[in-house]
Write a structure and sequence with these properties.
Largest sheet of chain A: 4 strands, mixed
CATH topology of the largest domain in chain A: 2-methylcitrate dehydratase PrpD
CATH architecture of the largest domain in chain A: Orthogonal Bundle
CATH superfamily of the largest domain in chain A: 2-methylcitrate dehydratase PrpD
Number of domains of chain A: 2
Strand order of the largest sheet of chain A: 4-3-5-6
CATH class of the largest domain in chain A: Mainly Alpha
Distance between the termini of chain A: 45 Å
Shape of chain A: globular
Oligomer: homodimer
Strand content of chain A: 5-15%
Chain lengths: ~425, ~425
Amino acid sequence: MGHVMDKLVRFGVAPVMGDQAHDAREMMAMSLLDWATVAIAGRNEPVARIVREMAVDDGGDGQASIVGRSRKLPVRAAAMVNGVASHALDYDDTHFAHIGHPSVAVVPAALAVSEWIRAPGSELLDAALVGVEGSIRLGRWLGRNHYQTGFHQTATAGAFGATLAAGRLLALSSHQMAHALGLCATRASGLKSQFGTMGKPYHAGLATETGVEVARAAKAGFTSAREGIEGPQGFGRTHAGEGDMTAFDGLGRQWDSLTISHKFHACCHGIHAMLEALSKIDCAAGDVAEIQLWTHPRWMSVCNIPHPSTGLEVKFSYAHCAAMILSDVDTAALESFSDQVARDPALVALASRVHVVADDNISETAARVEVTKNNGAVLSRDHNLKAPVRLADRRLKLEAKSRALLGERADQLIEAVGSLPDLPALCTLLRTS
Amino acid sequence: MGHVMDKLVRFGVAPVMGDQAHDAREMMAMSLLDWATVAIAGRNEPVARIVREMAVDDGGDGQASIVGRSRKLPVRAAAMVNGVASHALDYDDTHFAHIGHPSVAVVPAALAVSEWIRAPGSELLDAALVGVEGSIRLGRWLGRNHYQTGFHQTATAGAFGATLAAGRLLALSSHQMAHALGLCATRASGLKSQFGTMGKPYHAGLATETGVEVARAAKAGFTSAREGIEGPQGFGRTHAGEGDMTAFDGLGRQWDSLTISHKFHACCHGIHAMLEALSKIDCAAGDVAEIQLWTHPRWMSVCNIPHPSTGLEVKFSYAHCAAMILSDVDTAALESFSDQVARDPALVALASRVHVVADDNISETAARVEVTKNNGAVLSRDHNLKAPVRLADRRLKLEAKSRALLGERADQLIEAVGSLPDLPALCTLLRTS
């Protein structure tokens, strides 16, 4: 068995423990709240509706809850439906080193399987945490080259994380977990070229469905390639993986999950540092002559659509988002990313005066902005998303986000998730949303 | 829209016509017979059982028949179950330039959707033909490099073929077909490192399920990347595709499907030329001192397991298969590829005297063998699988294969498929097998 396979299997079946375990669980509980918030808020996005209606048409055994409909579906289908809904708004959590969105790929698998087997909330939480952590580590192992080549870690590394979560809940043996991960290696897929289309949120559904299916298959005796991840023709080498083994340092003792970022603007995470920096600048839109933005080069192929024509494309446009925040459009609100906003002449005119500069000296989580006013004055600010946020402060911000998106229903959700999820209450809220 | 996307979309929605259309349809009808034969024969293989039981447990709307159980399942699930069953024996058809197994990825999607929408047999046949042809062309476009890097065209190119077949039956517009193919680009997956495990037959299920799902999604309004196949981060470039546009020459007028090979030995197709060559040599096993085999280098990583320990591994072992045919073990019979045969001391001893030589001068479809007898005499033969077989002769061989595998039931199947499939009769045979 390869080193990576071995490490993931051991981690996947071991108890969650160690000095950081308490904080990591608290962080996971917050991510679960955030996940449920954006899943409920995104349940009626077109992509979420299409995938849900297909699954409902198929029907089947009522094993697990889906967001936005009262009927339950087979665990596989529920994972897919909830995965897509939760990534539909692109408002879910991110881990920059991962490189991707960990919770949307892992939580729906963990949740559906937990409901199916009636696991206690503590087991759901540990399974989601192990899955998220495993996906982050594997995402780091695949590395920058995997992403830059065109793969989407949310989908690819995410599928392995979902496999760990589902496999753990199904109490797979080490042997079975290895087969599940090996099978995942031949199913995991997802290309960055789908960004800006319904294909991107679909990736979360694919990843999480894969985790459920390969874990169930392994439980039933399915065999797969032991060298599926790391071998000469394993997932890593065939998918431009970097193979940096330090990605697994401290696995089981230290938690990368503690450095997950949550989103407080309803657009691509690559744009957030710019928005935070611009929000520190006091200048009315009418006074702006020109905006210069310095950002890390990796974002140029991700969120630098210069002339977005739809609300979805606006989420991936530095220029338009800069124009929006300078014009006091609320970038936290979902309604702000509409086709109408994309076409707004004043915003389009202001966006045309935004110049984006790729700069290797800027970290990926940071941005620097310089606004030149009509009177010649120049205002400059920067921001780094990595600036730490205390757990208690993060919870307050996430609860506020939940209320902003869900209104009064947020209070029930906040109560159902808490620090130890009340699984039946959470599932009921998803079904009745 | 990229050139490849454009060509596939046009081909996918156009009527089947031209000078070769009659022969291509006749060939497809034979492949359909062969597909149903191996699906029925393979229905109780462990991998087929596992996948079927998972799908049956999920249940759902009875839209399409599955092999080996009387109850119908949603079209998605039926495609998956039948895809896996039909590739479980590795006894299905092959196209060497493709590089893979076209029918197992395409036919299950075409069949399930046809049954669901009650399409006439002529539409099933044309959809399967267009899907198979499209997958072969795309497999050629992805090329040798895609395969040698570690991808399995059966799974990858096959998914696009299944998409064309399902999309055509669902009467997708050109616009919708492009979205279906674009979405397929982010789902298609399958690694050669699974060869010798249950992961390989699973690839056929994945491909054909993908075709059904992306076609349904596109019909319902799903959007995806227009550059999903050919763009800078499209499927081709991210998956080591060669991008040879001549792969599409004559598409719609000439049919690569006419050069599909059907299997008459129950093992990996890379071994067949050697078996045919050895079958021309008259030498009792006890008289053999040594066997030398020359084969194309590409097969060395596919079917040269030197010491197989299971019946499944024997199917990918030149040495063991050579020992078997020289010892008069029937390589057409499924029972011959057992764990017991893998362990047979006499076969193991003879296999240890087989020397496999990779030789660039041998074509991929050919083999040369040299048997040195204990008395010092040397016998040499070669064989090329590309030597043409007349359609009428091929039909006779396929009907004989069907009878060898299915006994008396073969006659009903042969009648149900014919040159124009009787869809209800065919589905009934699958369900009651």
